[in-house]
Amino acid sequence: MSQGLLDAQGAARKNDGSGEVRGINRRTFLKFGMTVGAAAGGGLLLGFSLPAASQDQTAHQSVIGGDAIEAPQDGVFAPNAFIQIDRTGKVALVIPKVEMGQGVYTSIPMLIAEELEVPLDSVTLDHAPPNEKLFMDPLLGGQLTGGSTSIRYAWEPMRRAGAAARVVLIDAAAQQWQVDPASCHAQAGKVVHPASNRSLGYGELVDAAAKLPVPPNVPLKDPKDFTLIGTAVKRLDSPEKIDGTAMFGLDVRVPGMVYAAIATCPVFGGTLASVDDTNAKKIPGVRQVVRFDNGVAVIGDHTWAAKRGLATLDIKWNEGAGANLSMKQIVDDLASAAQRDGAVARKEGDVNNAFSSAKTRVDAVYQQPFLAHATMEPVNCTVHVRPDGCDIWLGTQVPTRIVDAGVAVTGLPAGKITVHNHLLGGGFGRRLEFDMATQALKIGKQLGVPVKVVWTREEDIQHDMYRPYYYDRISAGLDANGKPVAWQHRIVGSSILARFAPPAFQHGLDPDAVEVAADLPYDLPNQLVDYVRQEPHAVPTAFWRGVGPTRGTFVVESFIDELAAQAKADPVKYRRDLLGKTPRALNVLNVATEAAGWGSAVPKGQGRGVSVMHAFGSFFSMVVDVSVDKGEVAVKRVVCAVDCGMVVNPDTIEAQVQGGVIFAITAALYSEITIKDGRVEQNNFTDYRMLRIDQAPPIEVHIVKSSEAPGGIGEPGTAALAPALTNAIFAATGKRIRQLPVGSQLQTA
Asked: Helices 150-177 and 104-116 sit at what angle, rounded to 10 degrees?
């Protein structure tokens, strides 16, 4: 599979299938090549591309609501994104980032509109077709959406695209009026010449502008001159989501489409042995029964017929060696692996000597469970496999990998695989995977007509790709004043990167698994952080919202609290004394604790906890108030301070933090996937519990003003929550939570 990756030096690398790996570092990425030309049907087409990007000019179309937009024609650089302005003045932006609730379909157009000087409501957005040569995100090394990179990726490229288009349009108007371009300016989708009181709309200028070159090094606006960036803007995609016209993968309807209900072997690694479909074929509306390697699908004229037919099947499975797998075996293997030395992620000073001279030693083991994604839009995929081509309709974070899946299953060349990407009803990393497409393709290949495959919630929970189970051994040596002088942290768990992007897994080290743990904001003179890979047999693992920083922050911030307690110090003061070299982290800690009233009394039975985190290019601090009654925890209030650099849309930041906090409370209190007899024990929201709306606490988000480049925002809220919550439980009860979920620990205490 051709895929992008990040090499050990942080340079984005791309393997295009030819065997040649091309390096593109961040500095190179920012040196854009820009072009301008005529768009199909008339108008101005501005493209910009990476210097190393292919000049493949093959036309593409994508569909994600609204009209499809053609890619650049001859004479224009193959873009990694582009702007098209037509004769009506309409501005269309094609961008290889998907909307899954994070607000990028508003924030990214804001970047364009700011520099282009057009009203935001005149910008439309279309999703880019699958093409890593044209649309690679150099921060992730591929055409994918994840890692809280969308605005970090778009911040400069999209502004430069808008600024370059503005300059060309001004030049076109100045030539028509025969005046100095410096005497003109752009305003509200027009070029204005104040001295003569003349103006021309962009739509009137596009044909002339298309013939002009784009000057190099177009200056960007000074942030003090921003009129749109930094303001609160209502989401552009809200109206269609409210009135039901928004298209998600689940909404796809194709003429002649049939429906599939599926049953997959419940045991990891098991396969289909046999199936008796006699009764299923008697159900009105059932067309046929399709078998594939590890499952069976009933095909019906409608979903109800397919589900009824599935319920009548007599299925026998080859359960295989995985049938004996249990949680005890998985955890025992992790504990055993934790005795081995791991791949070193960070080493500073002399840890052994520091421990020898320490006044006190503190040791702990932390455990975090398998987690499912449980996206509100169930896993789904619609396919039409034909001898001469294949169409795939779904919502995905990785469109190029969907193409790869189509090639692998159908045997068709990539050029014959068309992906129709749609809005995502939740991603959280689940739609970074393509197993749903592979399964649908295996079914569709046997049919020859369009088929829609929708997983039930039970299939979704029991056949997810799970956040790994992590087992951490952590120790610290304290001096006579309780300050840490030695720090040793061993992370044990599955390597997602070894599967997802193998070249990123070098010398036994998974960079994601050790994120945060290997780059602490605290001043610790002697550190040793290492990683031991231990795969949980056949249990598939994948990214989950917040990825490495989620697991790392829980362990680090919980343990820092343990050290503060050992030193009999206030947890906030203890952190402040260690954050002198990281002023942005110290600042968010101060903002959050002041807003939360840290130090004020809390009612009996309640507790208050804190956390600090630096991840995804942003700095976070959270303060959580909880009450504990008979083993049940209620989150009473969450206060968050965030420094994510330059702010594009503060409403988006607040919403993302709030959503991340809710997601994280659910996981910390309730979420756990357990294995028995090779099977997932949970099957729906009855036993994979969600936070209810009446349990959601007030969430205050304090955005710290910053002139730094934007950081990520989609995942940090999830990553910073759990330790603040468990530290609050300790403050309320005196019980230290070292294993999640909280509910299982308090109820068994």
From this structure: 30
The 3-class SS string of 658-676 reads HHHHHHHHHHHHCCCECEE
Query: 42 and 164 share a domain?
Result: yes
Cα–Cα distance, 268 to 463 (Å, whole number): 9
Task: Examine the domain organization and report whether 221 and 315 are in the same domain.
Answer: no
What is the average per-residue pLDDT within 489-497?
98
pLDDT at 60: 30
- Amino acid identity of residue 516, one-letter, is V
Residue 444: closest CA among 418, 409, 419, 420? 409
Residues belonging to the chain:
749
Whole-number pLDDT of residue 128: 82
Q: Are strands 632-643 and 699-703 parallel, antiparallel or unpaired?
A: parallel
Q: Which residues contact 101 (CB under 8 A, 6 or more apart)?
A: 424, 425, 426, 427, 659
Secondary structure string (H, E, C) spanning 681-711: CCCCCCCCCCCCHHHCCCEEEEECCCCCCCC
CA distance linking residue 187 with residue 190, whole number of Å: 5
Q: Six-digit token pair at 188? A: 């509200």
For CA atoms 159, 161, 166, 168, the dihedral sign is positive
| pLDDT given for residue 91 in this prediction | 84
Tell me, what amino acid is at 339? Q
Helices (H) and strands (E) in the chain, counts: 19, 31
For residues 291 and 439, give the distance between their C-alpha atoms in angstroms, rounded to a whole number: 11
Q: Is 568 found in the same domain as 637?
A: yes
- How far is residue 231's CA from residue 86's CA, in Å, rounded to a whole number? 27
Q: CA–CA separation, 95 vs 132, rounded Å?
A: 12
Check which CATH number belongs to the domain holding 702 and give it: 3.30.365.10
Domain that holds residue 85: 4-240
**Cis amide linkage into residue 741, ω under 30° from 0:** yes
pLDDT by residue (tens digit) across 111-155?
999 999 999 988 888 778 898 877 888 888 899 999 999 999 999
In a domain, 459, yes or no: no
